């Protein structure tokens, strides 16, 4: 009988699984302690260091069933995007209508990046019943006609009425959080991505279902965590930030923006806070660092489940090697995404064949 694939496979290092289990136990213990002392969960305590994330399990499902209420937002929130007071979605869809996806994927893309979007569609981003995948773009006079044609064909673009530009990345990130908040409140997990990454979808779904919880989580941000990053002041750096924009020498701990796994309650509180705060253009620093720190939200690292470039090359050149991972390295070329997808498909086929042979042998015996 075909066995369900687990994230941790025989012959692969157990460290990543132990790390995830330890995080989950920490979250559960923190939740039990909080319930014992206060009688009900109070997720966001100002002035206190936030505990780890909480997994929703059958025993606490009732207490944690509603991640947020839209009534907590101002009456003009829907038409506002930070300091844009006439915001609207110029291209929109409602694929979450009457569904409860395990995973909602929000992929940030530039209007010109049709080849990258197509690679995702043809490889790891193919539709399944467990996930919904959308690409988020801003306005582009040069590519608007092509975007509209692309949207007619694939029906997976979401566009807001702001210029798609390098310094407008925070608009795009907050727009994606807005869309998830208003249009997909039933998603158990939300994964924000760039369009040049690879996600090992079978392993990701297994990770969410077994290593986390199929019912979802609360207070969750898992990512490639950056600590004590120095603020760039040099005029030669594209990441230069003036002292007026950010006066500190170091950023607070934040998530690298290429892959961030959120729980829906965190999406909501970060979105609500971003709507109140002055605009800062480095979106991952602003949203998962500055705002997360203000809200006493603790990020958790998934570094051990991200392939390094060296790991990726070893896997591609030596197909017998087994390694647990959820993500390829960031900033991948299109041919590297296709190669990783082929590797995963080949490995899954080999597992299926091995199990089929084993079942046949048992039946004959």
UniProtKB/TrEMBL annotation:
Under InterPro entries, the record lists: Glyco_trans_31
Q: Name one GO biological process term.
A: protein O-linked glycosylation
Keyword Transmembrane included in the entry's annotation: yes
Q: Using the UniProt record, give the first listed, main subcellular location.
A: Golgi
Q: Which Pfam families match?
A: Galactosyl_T
Query: How does it sit in the bilayer?
Result: Single-pass type II membrane protein
- Drop me one GO molecular function for this one: hexosyltransferase activity
User: Which key words tag this protein in UniProt?
Assistant: Glycoprotein, Glycosyltransferase, Golgi apparatus, Membrane, Signal-anchor, Transferase, Transmembrane, Transmembrane helix
Report the locations given in the UniProt record: Golgi apparatus membrane
State which Enzyme Commission number(s) the record gives. 2.4.1.-
- Residue ranges of the TM segments: 12-33
A GO CC annotation recorded here is:
Golgi membrane
- PANTHER family listed in its UniProt record: BETA-1,3-N-ACETYLGLUCOSAMINYLTRANSFERASE, HEXOSYLTRANSFERASE
Entry's family note: Belongs to the glycosyltransferase 31 family.
Q: What is this protein called?
A: Hexosyltransferase
Q: Which organism's genome codes for this protein?
A: Vespula pensylvanica (Western yellow jacket)
């Amino acid at each position: 009988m075909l066995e369900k694939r687990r994230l941790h496979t025989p012959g692969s290092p157990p460290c990543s699984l132990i790390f995830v289990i330890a995080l989950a136990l920490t979250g559960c213990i923190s939740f039990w302690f909080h319930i014992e002392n206060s009688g009900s969960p109070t997720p966001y305590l100002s002035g206190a260091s936030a505990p780890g994330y909480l997994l929703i399990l059958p025993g606490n499902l009732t207490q944690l069933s509603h991640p947020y209420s839209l009534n907590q937002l101002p009456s003009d929130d829907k038409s506002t995007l930070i300091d844009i007071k006439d915001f609207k979605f110029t291209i929109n869809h409602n694929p979450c209508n009457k569904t409860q996806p395990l995973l909602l994927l929000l992929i940030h893309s530039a209007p010109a990046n049709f080849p990258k979007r197509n690679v995702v569609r043809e490889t790891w981003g193919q539709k399944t019943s467990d996930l919904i995948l959308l690409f988020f773009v801003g306005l582009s006079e040069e590519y608007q006609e092509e975007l509209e044609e692309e949207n007619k064909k694939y029906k997976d673009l979401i566009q807001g009425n702001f210029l798609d530009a390098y310094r407008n990345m925070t608009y795009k990130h907050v727009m994606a959080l807005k869309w998830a908040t208003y249009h997909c409140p039933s998603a158990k997990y939300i994964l924000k991505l760039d369009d040049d990454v690879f996600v090992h979808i079978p392993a990701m779904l297994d990770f969410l279902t077994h290593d986390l919880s199929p019912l979802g989580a609360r207070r969750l941000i898992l990512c490639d965590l950056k600590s004590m990053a120095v603020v760039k002041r040099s005029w030669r750096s594209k990441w230069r930030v003036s002292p007026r924009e950010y006066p500190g020498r170091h950023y607070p701990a934040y998530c690298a923006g290429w892959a961030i796994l959120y729980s829906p309650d965190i999406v909501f509180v970060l979105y609500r806070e971003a709507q109140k705060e002055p605009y800062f253009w480095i979106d991952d620093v602003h949203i998962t660092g500055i705002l997360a720190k203000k809200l006493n939200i603790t990020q958790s690292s998934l570094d051990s489940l991200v392939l390094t470039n060296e790991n990726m090359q070893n896997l591609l050149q030596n197909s017998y090697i087994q390694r647990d991972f959820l993500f390829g390295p960031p900033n991948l070329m299109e041919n590297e995404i296709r190669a990783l997808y082929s590797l995963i498909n080949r490995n899954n086929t080999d597992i299926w064949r091995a199990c089929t042979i084993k079942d046949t042998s048992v039946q004959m015996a």
